[in-house]
Automatic annotation (TrEMBL):
It comes from Pseudomonas sediminis. The chain crosses the membrane at residues 46-67, 79-103, 139-156, 162-179. Pfam families: NMN_transporter. This is Nicotinamide riboside transporter PnuC. Its main location: membrane. Belongs to the nicotinamide ribonucleoside (NR) uptake permease (TC 4.B.1) family. Required for nicotinamide riboside transport across the inner membrane. The lineage of its organism: Bacteria, Pseudomonadati, Pseudomonadota, Gammaproteobacteria, Pseudomonadales.
Length: 189
C-alpha cells in the first residue's frame, strides 16, 4: 500500500458518494482519482485497468458536461431508465469489448490476468457511460462489476483497493435505491 493508493482510494469514495447524491463535483474529483489510479495500474502492470482509467478520464469530462449542461434544455440530465433493448445493447458491447481487449492484452502484453481484467474494464466502461447519462441501470451493473473487482484485487493482493471496491459496492446499492426514488424517473430508449 502506498500513499498514492491511499489518496486515490479516498478520492474514489468521495467521488462515488457525491455521485449518489447527484452532485456534479463528483466528476472533477473523479477525474483526479482516475488519473492517480492510471499511474498505479501502470506500476502494477494491469494494463487493461490503466486503459480503463484513461478512458474514465474522458468519461469524467463527458459526465461533468452531461450533468451540468446536458438534457433537452441544457440544464443538466435527470435520472432516467434505459429500455430493455438499450440495456441488452450495452451488455453486448461489454461482451464484445471484453473479448477484443482480452485477446489484445493476452497476445501482445505481459499483463497480469488479461482476460478478467479486460472483462471488468469493458463492463466498467458501459456502467460509466450509463452513469454519465444518469441511467438508473448503471448502479446494478456497478454492483456486479464492483463485487468482481473486490475478488480480483484480493487475489492480486491489492487489499486497500479491494476495500475501496467493497465500499463502491455499498455505495452502488445506495445509488440504486436513491436514484430509483427520483421523481423525474422516466424511460428513455
Amino acid at each position: 500500500m502506498s500513499w498514492l493508493e491511499l489518496v486515490a482510494a479516498g478520492l474514489g469514495i468521495v467521488a462515488v458518494w457525491l455521485t449518489v447524491r447527484q452532485n456534479p463535483w463528483c466528476w472533477p474529483i473523479g477525474l483526479i482519482m482516475v488519473l492517480l489510479y492510471a499511474w498505479l495500474f501502470y506500476d502494477w502492470r494491469l494494463y487493461s485497468n490503466l486503459l480503463l482509467q484513461l478512458l474514465f478520464a474522458a468519461l469524467q469530462l463527458y459526465g461533468w458536461w452531461q450533468w451540468t449542461r446536458g438534457g433537452d434544455r441544457h440544464d443538466g440530465r435527470k435520472v432516467s431508465r434505459l429500455g430493455v433493448v438499450a440495456v441488452l445493447t450495452g451488455l453486448l458491447i461489454g461482451v464484445l469489448g471484453a473479448g477484443l481487449l482480452g485477446y489484445l492484452m493476452a497476445t501482445y502484453t505481459n499483463a497480469n490476468s488479461p482476460w478478467l481484467d479486460s472483462a471488468l474494464t469493458a463492463f466498467s466502461l458501459v456502467a460509466q457511460l450509463w452513469m454519465a447519462q444518469k441511467r438508473l441501470q448503471c448502479w446494478a451493473l456497478w454492483v456486479m462489476v464492483d463485487i468482481c473487482y473486490v475478488a480480483f484485487f484480493m487475489y492480486s493482493e491489492l487489499y486497500l483497493t479491494a476495500g475501496l471496491y467493497a465500499a463502491f459496492t455499498a455505495l452502488a446499492i445506495n445509488g440504486w435505491l436513491t436514484w430509483r426514488c427520483d421523481s423525474a424517473l422516466q424511460y428513455e430508449p
